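Dear colleague,

Thank you for sharing your sequence with our group. We've completed the structure prediction you requested, and as agreed, I am returning the results in plain text so they can be pasted directly into your records. Please verify that the sequence below matches your submission; if there's any discrepancy, let me know and we will rerun it promptly.
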Amino acid sequence: MGRNKFSQHEIDIIAMLLRRKNAGTRFQQKQIRHQLRVNFEFNISDFNEQGKAFGETELKEAVGRGAIKILDDATIADMKEKRRRDRERDALVERGERTGGDGTDWQLALKEWEEWENETERSENHEDWT
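Please find the predicted structure tokens below.
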């Protein structure tokens, strides 16, 4: 699920992109939907009825019924900053889970161990020859 709170400026841009989407080819529509998801975290499926086209009119209806809220620019900027921090925290948590939770990269530790064993083995074999 994407966002449901946008600034008026973002809504204006989204409306313009939806007009272009509905007038474009299938490939252009796909590109515009991608732009909406990546740049605005706007997923059409969050606001429309399945199987129906979603355009500027439907956007205005979603705003009118309160499914999309319009907030001031400063609030939106704060919200985006919080989402960025949350994503960074989640990435750190996930990386911690992959490393065993204690920050140790077990694959790297295993590689270092194997290198140490190989060096020890080589030095022991070298001592046998002298």
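Summary note from our side: Residues 73-98 form the longest helix (26 residues).

Kind regards,
the structure core
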